[in-house]
Amino acid sequence: MIETTLAYTFPAAFALLPGVMDSPEARALLLAIGLQESGFEARRQHGSGPARGFWQFEAGGTSGVLTHVTSMRHAEHVCAELVYPASSVACYPALEHNDVLACCFARLLLWTLPERLAGRASADRAWTQYVAAWRPGQPRRATWDAYVARAWSLVDGF
Question: Taking the domains of the chain in order of start, what are their residue ranges?
Answer without folding.
Answer: 2-43+50-157
